């Protein structure tokens, strides 16, 4: 190997040039569960290309070769997860955090120990504060018997501060038709749409998160945005409100995204600067889809085991003890994996009996 060549001394002109600051602070390849930063715990990305559905709303194909009860191998491009007939996640407990489930395509049938139940789908978001303890199921009914049943969703786990770990559970729906979307067109006529699930963007504010959520505190500076950029489109994201805010982006569709000159490839996550506005540019190969998670860290110890997230190991042990003793209110449904049949539209029945019907 040749000896390195010493760099030339800087000229006066070089010294006058401001150094270029890379807006990407860290990047990481993405798997099924995306790494996140406090106050987020993780983000599960589900993309299942289910076949046509059977009369029981499961796959109308043989299930041989799958580990039924724990099928996560993505055989043939889809999973049964913990479902045995209908794909999904039969009843299971949570304590100490929140689940935010944003669906792009397909349907989810929800039921919980509060007595709440729902069917929601493309563009809808369910926000569930587990708090002191809740049991819920999330099943993916395959309602189309004459064609594919694609499912695409994100489930984000959002931590709760110690003071709110044991609040009463709270279930809410953020329906697609109530979710604000900002559409912008750049100088070249290329379009970008920003779906505003949480936080504010371009003067738009979505429906309120649950009252005990970290997102309900103004100082959290929390945002969840979905960016859809046409090929070659540019978008400037504004600076965050606070100096401690952390913004993480996930490029989950498209060939590349250029962030202030830094190229991110497909299926890549990155912590990015948000103390100043930064320009994002989609690659020319096709549309680019990006999920943005932003927030000020809670900054407390995290102890987690399976479905429970607390601050200490003793609190984790207490969560298991409480669940064994109380069942977090018990399971009011006849089936561990209930669904709402082949024809039911989008709806929610809340724990107080209030029913919200939506169009299919």
Topology:
Layout: H1 12-16, E1 24-29, E2 33-34, E3 40-50, E4 88-94, E5 97-105, E6 107-112, E7 117-121, E8 125-129, E9 134-139, E10 149-159, E11 170-174, E12 181-185, E13 191-198, E14 223-229, E15 234-237, E16 246-253, E17 256-259, E18 262-265, E19 268-272, E20 278-282, E21 288-295, E22 303-305, E23 308-310, H2 313-326, E24 347-349, E25 355-357
Antiparallel strand pairs: 1-19, 2-3, 3-10, 4-9, 5-8, 5-10, 6-7, 6-9, 7-24, 8-11, 12-13, 13-14, 14-21, 15-20, 16-19, 16-21, 17-18, 17-20, 22-23, 24-25
The CATH homologous superfamily of the largest domain: Jelly Rolls
Q: What's the CATH architecture name of the largest domain?
A: Sandwich
Number of alpha- plus pi-helical segments: 2
Task: Kindly state the number of beta strands.
Answer: 25
- Shape descriptor: globular
Helix percent reads under 10%
The CATH class of the largest domain is identified as Mainly Beta
Q: What is the strand content?
A: 35-45%
Which structural class is indicated by helix and strand composition? mainly beta
Mean pLDDT: 94
| Main sheet properties | 7 strands, antiparallel
Calculate Rg over CA atoms: 22 Å
Q: Give the total of domains.
A: 2
CA-CA gap between termini: 67 Å
Strand order of the largest sheet: 1-19-16-21-14-13-12
Which series of helices and strands comes N to C?
A: HEEEEEEEEEEEEEEEEEEEEEEEHEE
The poorly predicted ranges are: 1-9
**Remind me, CATH topology of the largest domain?**
Jelly Rolls
